[in-house]
Batch of 2 targets.
Target 1
Amino acid sequence: MRYVSTRGGPATSSARDAILSGTAPDGGLWMPEAIPQLPAERIAELAELPYPDLAALILSPFIGDAIDDQRLLDLCIEAYAGFDDPEVAPLVPLAGRHWLLELFRGPTLAFKDFALQVLGRVLAELVGERPLVLVGATSGDTGSAAIAAVAGRPNIALVMLHPEGRVSEVQRRQMTTVDAPNIVNLAVRGSFDDCQRLVKQLFAEGVGDLRLGAVNSINWLRIAAQVPYYFAAAAKLNAIEHPVAFAVPSGNFGNACAGYVARAMGLPIERLIIATNSNDILHRAFTTGLYERGEALATTAPAMDIQVASNFERMLFVADREAVPEQMKALAENGRFHLTHAQRDLVDARFSSASADEPAIVAATRWANERAGQVIDPHTAAGLHAALHSDLPHDVPIVTLGTAHPAKFPDAVAAALGERPPMTEALQEMFARPELYEVVDADAEAIAGHVRKLAGPSA
Ligand SMILES: *Cc1c(COP(=O)(O)O)cnc(C)c1O
């Protein structure tokens, strides 16, 4: 399997180098040259497989000969052993045609664990002799999931930036209470957009001759490792006979992109319903064809408080690759671009969208509680809002992706339901541990200094 850049640059990459490098040299994102296909009879059999076996089977063509199949299976078994439900991604009935796929059973209680638990192990497998320094920015959930995945791994270090005071206390403590010599947490005096800009600057300018790597969802393996749960849920609902729809709480479009890849591999997905919160750039792009950056608003679903959905570039590429370099240039220069006809056709055929403002998030949280006895978090509630308002025929089952555990967002859940969700045991233990982090200015040179220090005297 070869990888090509969404910006059309001449460089291609092996799976190994695409995963280790994060982005292509022309600034684009790596995409597989062709999407592998899974025939219908194989998909029907997946319902019988344990989750790690299913994950290894789906990932295998994307990893190619970078890791052999038996070893990949071992890594997937290890990656999902730490989840607190034997099904890994349990599918729970809500009411009527609505289902909830619980993707928050991993160590940090958000769906990011699905990809990062695999990515951490795959990076350790591929890193070789030369140390790898991962640099990432987080609005909350990526940081903790990445730290949990790489803490203590030899030859890999991680510098994680979060905006000071703008992640929830649970999210911050999940990052800062991990005591490992290869992890540094930096609280940046600025916004999440500042953090992301600083990371991009470090990648562009380099830090000495250090080898830098990405853990954000610009890394292709983050997307690939989210494809298997779409297959798992759809196989359980017998999608080969009756196609299903998924409602996807979206920010950077990584999860939705994985759903699209599942569809392109042959999974009968009737529709991917993209849910945004009040930061509705994707919903606007889908309904008007104009992709235009606005001001990021703070909501109760902070992991979706994003103005530029990085992985949307991958969809644009699939639909009309020639247009992408110009569109990305226009976005950088003017903050906007128009989708082409081919891109709009693909979007109309595969996706629909809805935006959930704060009252809609509260209403969906209450619906789940009253109709199904389920306590859901605000991100999941945004997804459920979109599912409940879908215009799909009534015989199409809709699976809402549960992207975070309600205990991660206790204040928002309490505001909707009048009662705080119980804390998990792991969270209780976490609150007793000391925090380790440094506060820094939003300055690339200061960050680079921390990267060098962590990398050690050889840097
Ligand atoms: C990251 C995240 C999202 C958004 O996912 P994308 O892949 O960025 O679209 C939604 N909900 C939660 C809880 C998250 O952590």
Target 2
Amino acid sequence: MASIFPGLGWILGFSFICSSLFEIYRRHLLYQDPIAKNFIASELYRTAYHFQPTQHWMNDPNAPMYYNGVYHLFYQHNPDAATWTANISWGHSVSADLVHWTGLELALTPSDPFDISGCWSGSATILPGSKPVILYTGLDTVSRQVQNIAYPKNLSDPFLREWIKPRYNPVIEPHGRIDAALFRDPSTAWLGRDGSWRLTVGTVIDGNGLAMLYKSKDFVKWVPAENPLYYTNGSGMWECVDFFPLGEARGVTKYMLKVSMFDVSYDYYALGTYDEEGGVFTRDDASSTDYRTWPMIDYGRVYASKTFLDEAKQRRILWGWSNESNSIADDVAKGWAGIQTVPRVLSLDTDGKRLVQWPIEELESLRGEQIHLQDIELETGSQVEVRGLKVSQADVEVEFELQSLIGAEPFDANWIVDPPKLCREKGAYANHGGIGPFGLLVLAADNLEENTAVYFRVFRAEGSYKVLMCADQRRSSKRSELYKPASGGFVDIDIKKERKISLRTLIDHSVVESFGGGGRTCITSRVYPTILLNDNTHLYAFNYGTETVKISELKAWNMAQAQIS
Ligand SMILES: *[C@@H]1O[C@H](CO)[C@@H](O)[C@H](O)[C@H]1NC(C)=O
Ligand SMILES: *[C@@H]1O[C@H](CO)[C@@H](O)[C@H](O)[C@H]1NC(C)=O
Ligand SMILES: *[C@@H]1O[C@H](CO)[C@@H](O)[C@H](O)[C@H]1NC(C)=O
Ligand SMILES: *[C@@H]1O[C@H](CO)[C@@H](O)[C@H](O)[C@H]1NC(C)=O
């Protein structure tokens, strides 16, 4: 063809170059214009398999439940804008597998004197005879926080679309010394051996966070118990308290108390025992009353988490809200804000001393093309690229093997209360440590100008070793106005015995959700790399410590898009 029409190839080529140049120019223009930039961002930073509504604002997950073969997820939602406002409603989505979701009409909207200023967080309980009921916080006509009930209008509707609020609401009002502006988020109720229901609601008195306990025989009239279920000294307001039995360790069922600490925006948990008669929870670890020493659900951007018992598979599943790390103006330009973590199965570690979280197995149905690497020596100062996948939408599982612990840096006991500070000061790149930093560089530019480092570092403490896990977002994007912290927590693992540590990282455009040490420590980051604009992201495994680390195995998968309408 080229010999017959010598000019044509050239013309086609020229027009191709022109349109490519134009495309580059257009992207350049869009990138320069802050609103247009966010328009691009709104598409590229949306998640493919982390739950989010099609538009507008979302915060806490509410009343997750499994009922008649359908999973329900409700969520705090502003149906009109991407910002949080006074008139919050309940969004509602249903699913058969916890992966693909169908959005339904709003389940609860401010409508009655007891919730006219907002329908805030709450939980579901399935009553005997298979009757679901929701308890939630309403903001009444004078913005008092009161606890209300709602029932499905039609139990034959497989999706429970419509909910009825009985006239006798509210069922619990602020009382005694409780501040009416700090009293919210009723938990799922549980039935005692005496035939009475119990539930807990979070509040604060004199700066001390409290999980108030209430009892009821008929689910309508609720009476405060003599003592709170639990409280701590000086932690500030507790939100979204969750309380439930978890697993069996040495034949004993543990109880888990989860509280969302409003002042610091983190979710903490404690494992212990529950004395039903006395109505009190006792922590197993009594070594410190300082709540800051409690383990966290997630050491990154996860808050207001909530669990439910999945009767279909007899497992306890946790959802958590992950908020944006950009500005409110960015959210407005994007038209959306807030995602949920992937549903995580909760279990106890074999010795019953800590929580283990792991993505639900259903998520693996989205796994596509796979990369499998084995036995790679990561010498000091080296990195290995994981090629052949779309690494902005992937699931990565890697196991690191430590040949020796001799080079571990000494640990200063003062570091125990502030792992993020340790992550910030030690850093992922400079400051070559002993054992580590080693881990993954995700959503990375080929010159590493942008990347999010998820990594470990091993320290030698008195008679044991400490393993630090960090997610350093400080280089996650060239945009300077974003919130880009270094997050971190310790991994409670006997590294001397195991000599191995695993990392699973779910990468989904603007979220990096990581599970360290088999799910003992989790860190979720929200990042907005500019390289996503050209879909030119890379994934590396790295070791910038002074000791060689081996990757015994690395598996990575492309993740398909979940259907979320
Ligand atoms: C809440 O809704 C009411 C009624 O629609 C409206 O008058 C009020 O301005 C709204 N408040 C906010 C903060 O959006
Ligand atoms: C209840 O839901 C079922 C199933 O969707 C429907 O057939 C029935 O008409 C509904 N009943 C009422 C009173 O709306
Ligand atoms: C509670 O905290 C205050 C100051 O934060 C302290 O003075 C007090 O001793 C603490 N009480 C207990 C029981 O730990
Ligand atoms: C949401 O994100 C910001 C950073 O953008 C953070 O400072 C804030 O504490 C977060 N809020 C909650 C409730 O998690």
